[in-house]
Write a structure and sequence with these properties.
Elements (H helix, E strand, L loop, with lengths): L1 H12 L10 H8 L3 H11 L3 H4 L5 H28 L4 H18 L6 E3 L2 H17 L6 H21 L11 H24 L10 H10 L7 H25 L4 H9 L1 H17 L31 H6 L4 H23 L5 H15 L8 E3 H9 L7 H15 L1 H4 L4 H12 L6 H10 L1 H16 L2 H21 L3 E11 L4 E8 L20 E6 L8 H15 L24 H4 L8 E5 L8 H18 L4 E5 L4 H9 L23 H4 L10 H8 L2 H14 L3 E3 L6 E3 L8 E2 L2 H23 L1
Parallel strand pairs: 5-6, 6-7, 7-10
Antiparallel strand pairs: 1-2, 3-4, 3-5, 8-9
Length: about 750
């Protein structure tokens, strides 16, 4: 009964093959293996700290203390400076710094990355605050907007990490990231120049070129702040230049000069703060203003701890800005963590890093923090300082706590121009160097164009437009490469090894590119009647018609028609076949097509449209030659590809085209209702022989099976050898050479069968 039911179901769905193939049950079975252990592994992977904390030792601790304190000293002035970019009070930068370095160490898979406020994210927050205030003036304060952005974006990134969707980051290539970062850095520098010079009276958050032009126009209004800002900026570069030169001159003391260079931010801020205090303390005007702009009051400790105030109306107001904020939040961090992992010999887990960023930002809202992510400059500093584990963040957090509870009175006198100098000095390193830009051009000129477009759009429009442009251009390039991949018709070259007195055949394009190999090498085409084609991409719906057109056009150009059409009247010809009177004479020297070999060594996936394209190709070439054509496949990489090809009637040795003509019909009644009689294929001599003598087909299949099983492997038992490929699919081969030999052997077999049919 069960067997009858199976046969009935197969007849209903049209399953005529009885070839063993992979099934969804096999895929589900792999996923269902030991679910308890998989769940335990997943939960423990959420806390990487358990993987290394038990091995923590004093050797690690010494390196972590030095690196943590060093980063902390740099982090304090930088975080207050970045809060200034975000148009927030300076204490919010300290809140974000503390939570970032403290929480990240429990979830990190990178020892080098330092989490906290960064310039690009701060600039994005300032743009979001500006957008919300313009749409809803005076309704929400800047800190509440920034905290809401941190909570929503952190929650989104956390969800992406928990769902293991970190591979989405891979759709944004390095040139796009570099172009966006370069444009953002230029935007930040232009926005800080007015503060450096004490110029005011225009919007410093406008487009980069507008801010730069307005700064030049405002040079006559330069104030005393420029004395502090320019002095600080020059001092920062002078100290770094001097330390680099001294390190090269005295290599034995290079580490000392390195730490002197590291402390330049703190040193300049301290000196300028003392100078500011000495100059401004007795020069307060009647309206409470000082000759230069200073930070003034910075609240002591955590003044905004508690449950975050997430207003649903505010979420609606900034919903349109959340995508770009989320992208920036994880994009910069993943790029930085991968870079340091690659340089320092360890591998990061993108999904876990997203979880770390998500948790850091969601917890940070309890402290009043605004969005924090990985900082390239502080991560590089931490790496060079000899960090040994993520625990260094704990020591950086101690420095921030000391600053929050013990140094806030001194922060009162910090000149704003000095913070602008620190920002410009730090952000300038984000601008791509000429060497890096030239490398983009050398590797891929198209990606260089994407880099340029990203920079220009960011400079002349907004950061949001810049990142969307870079992502859209990168995705468009990816789709173009997928839809228009390369394909080559192959020929044979014999390589000789003089030392081992051996030779082997390799298959390369019939017309090799002179930039790839010696153009004088003679490439021999396969035997007459055999076509070998290699496709260099997955065989999917965007590109499947390309292969169909390439093979059919090549066959019609290089092989002769199987049916003599010289005597056919124009009225009896198909409407799209004008024909020629001397058609057979022109193609008399051309061979008759017998087999097509497809090299699938670069094909990792195939879909329904791809299989249908192969069926269409088979139908068209067989209509051209007026006889069955063998399709051989070499180096199939996936059992799912094999399953799809078998479903299309390929590989099993069935060479009649009338078994599968439509695997994906657009309507239920496709073939018999829309095909006109002119295109109804008549039975060929081969088909008639198969109809009258089914054993003829079996003979062809067995012969092909023998030729495709040339490669054998030694089994465990002695003197036993088995074919490498599965015997149920004799037209699937191990490599191109085996497939070509099988196809060339089929030429003579098919010819003999045709002669028998004619008799």
């Amino acid at each position: 009964m069960l067997s009858l039911l199976k046969k009935t179901c197969r007849r209903i769905v049209g399953s005529a093959e009885d070839v063993p193939v992979i099934s969804p049950r096999d895929w589900v079975g792999k996923l269902a293996q030991d679910p308890t252990q998989r769940a335990v592994t997943y939960l423990t992977s959420l806390f990487p700290i358990f993987g290394w904390i038990t091995r923590y030792n004093l050797g690690w601790a010494s390196g972590d203390v030095i690196a943590g304190l060093t980063v902390g000293i740099v982090l304090v002035p930088q975080s207050m400076s970045y809060a200034q970019i975000a148009t927030l009070p300076p204490e919010y930068g300290l809140y974000s710094s503390f939570v970032g370095v403290l929480v990240y160490c429990f979830f990190a898979t990178s020892k080098d990355v330092s989490i906290g406020p960064v310039a690009v994210m701060s600039l994005t927050v300032s743009q979001i605050i500006k957008h919300v205030n313009e749409a809803h003036p005076g309704e929400w304060a800047g800190p509440q907007i920034a905290t809401t952005v941190a909570f929503i974006c952190g929650f989104i990134v956390l969800g992406i990490g928990l769902l293991h969707l970190g591979w989405l980051v891979e759709f944004i290539p390095a040139p796009a990231v570099s172009g966006f970062m370069t444009g953002s850095a230029l935007n930040i520098v232009s926005g800080q120049l007015p503060g450096l010079l004490g110029i005011s009276g225009f919007d410093t958050r406008a487009a980069t070129y507008k801010v730069f032009i307005n700064t030049l126009k405002g040079l006559p209004r330069t104030k005393l702040d420029a004395a502090f800002g320019i002095t600080g900026l020059v001092s920062l570069y002078a100290i770094r230049w001097a330390c680099d030169r001294l390190s090269k001159r005295y290599p034995s003391r290079a580490r000392w000069f390195f730490f002197l260079s590291v402390f330049r931010n703190a040193f300049v801020i301290v000196v300028l703060t003392i100078a500011s205090w000495l100059y401004t303390r007795h020069r307060k005007s009647a309206n409470g203003k000082y000759p230069i702009k200073i930070l003034q009051d910075v609240p002591r400790g955590f003044q905004h701890m508690g449950q975050p105030n997430i207003d649903p109306e505010l979420v609606k107001a900034l919903a349109g800005e959340l995508p770009v904020a989320t992208i920036i939040l994880f994009l910069e961090h993943i790029a930085i963590s991968k870079s340091f992992g690659r340089v320092n010999g360890y591998k990061i887990d993108p999904n876990q890093e997203l979880i770390a960023i998500g948790v850091t930002n969601t917890i940070g809202t309890l402290f009043g923090a605004y969005p924090a992510t990985g900082s390239f400059s502080r991560s590089a500093l931490q790496s060079k300082s000899g960090v040994r584990s993520p625990a260094s963040g704990l020591f950086s957090a101690v420095v921030v706590i000391v600053a929050l509870y013990g140094l806030t009175p001194a922060f009162y006198w910090i000149p704003s121009a000095a913070l602008s100098a620190v920002i410009i000095h730090a952000v300038a390193d984000l601008v791509a160097s000429p060497r890096q830009v030239y490398s983009f051009w050398r590797v891929s000129p198209i990606e260089f164009v994407i880099w340029v477009a990203s920079v220009l759009v960011t400079v002349f429009a907004t950061i949001e437009d810049g990142i969307y442009t870079s992502i859209a251009a990168s995705l468009a390039l990816l789709l173009i490469r997928l839809a228009r991949p390369r394909g080559h018709f192959l020929g044979r070259v014999t390589l000789h090894n003089a030392s081992e007195q051996s030779s082997r055949d390799v298959y390369i394009p019939l017309n090799p590119d002179r930039f790839l190999m010696n153009p004088h090498v003679k490439v021999y085409p396969p035997s007459p009647g055999v076509v070998v084609y290699r496709f260099e991409e997955s065989f999917l719906y965007p590109n499947s018609s390309l292969v169909n057109d390439a093979i059919v056009d090549y066959v019609k150009e290089n092989t002769r028609r199987g049916r003599d059409m010289t005597g056919v009247k124009s009225g009896d010809r198909p409407w799209n076949d004008p024909g020629k009177n001397n058609e057979m004479a022109d193609s008399a020297e051309k061979p008759l097509l017998h087999a097509i070999v497809l090299d699938f060594s670069a094909v990792s996936h195939i879909d329904t449209t791809g299989v249908q394209a192969l069926i269409d190709t088979r139908t068209e070439v067989e209509r051209w030659v007026d006889r069955p054509v063998e399709f051989h496949f070499a180096t199939i990489l996936s059992p799912w590809i094999r399953r799809a090809l078998v479903a299309g009637g390929f590989g099993v040795g069935t060479i009649s085209t009338h078994i599968h003509e439509e695997i994906a019909p657009v309507t239920r009644y496709h073939d018999q209702y829309i095909a006109d009689p002119q295109h109804a294929d008549p039975l060929t001599p081969m088909d008639e022989q198969i109809r009258d003598d089914p054993e003829a087909l079996t003979q062809v299949v067995r012969a092909s099976a023998r030729s495709s099983s040339e490669g054998t492997i030694q089994m465990d038992r002695k003197d036993m050898a088995e074919p490498m490929m599965l015997p149920s699919t004799p037209f699937f081969h191990l490599d191109v050479g085996t497939a070509v030999r099988a196809a060339e052997g089929g030429v003579t077999r098919a010819s003999s069968i045709m002669e028998t049919a004619k008799d």
